[in-house]
Amino acid sequence: MASDLKGKAIVLMGVCGSGKSTIGVMLAKVLNCSFLDADDFHSVANKEKMRQGIPISNEERIPWLRTLRDALEESLLSGKTVILACSALQKQYREILRSADPNYAPGSHASLVKFILLDAEAEVIAVRLHQRAAEGTHFMPHTLLQSQLDLLQIDDSEGIVKVDATPSPEVIVSKMQSALLSDQE
Q1: DSSP character string of the chain
Q2: Cα separation of 48 and 42, whole Å?
Q3: Residue 76: phi, psi to the nearest 5?
Q4: Whole-model pTM?
Q5: pLDDT-based confidence at 56, cuts 50/70/90?
Q6: pLDDT at residue number 94
Q7: Is 162 left (phi over 0), alpha (psi -120 to 50) or beta?
Q8: Buried-exposed string 157-177: b where 16+ CB fall within 10 A, e elsewhere
Q9: How do residues 163-173 score in pLDDT, each as one tens digit?
């Protein structure tokens, strides 16, 4: 299956706690491709701000997204497949990531960069975030969930694949494989 996706970037998007990193690592292993976690690209200042429960501004977010775009572009230009875990909550943010495809015509949504939304009810995500906080495994506090939900914009014209993020990670990865394969036909 990885050969079917050669030279594509798959962005697992959604709010904090939706499972982007967990699923991304697993999906990359199944597809035998690279995995990038957008959290690893945040500046120390951005992480500290979010750790304090303060959402980052667009002035802080846009340079981060451009760095992610450049990382995706490098993979695409070398013909490699890459999975990126990134919130990509707004259309304008996804447009920046889509532009990693050198042939992308802005606004067309026809890009080698594809988006899959990990979708779950706010209550499910909140439970996960509380668990993460108790474990001390992530810088993003549960208090920022509402700000992320408020930012989330989904436009059906973008062709974003929605996957239910409530089952086990194994079930989610299987559903994603099916969705990705059907996209290739």
Answers
A1: -GGGGTT-EEEEE-STTSSHHHHHHHHHHHHT-EEEEGGGGS-HHHHHHHHTT-PPPHHHHHHHHHHHHHHHHHHHHTT--EEEE----SHHHHHHHHTTSTT--TTS--SSEEEEEEE--HHHHHHHHHHHHHHT--S--GGGHHHHHHH----GGG-PEEEE-SS-HHHHHHHHHHHHHHHH-
A2: 10
A3: -65, -45
A4: 0.85
A5: confident
A6: 96
A7: beta
A8: eeebbebebeeeeeebbebbe
A9: 998 999 999 99
Token pair 């304090």 in the structure block, residue? 52
Contacts of 99 (CB under 8 A, 6+ apart): 69, 106, 111
Which amino acid is it at 57? S
34: β partners: 82
Residue range 115-158, pLDDT digits in tens: 999 988 878 877 777 676 666 555 555 566 677 778 788 888 99
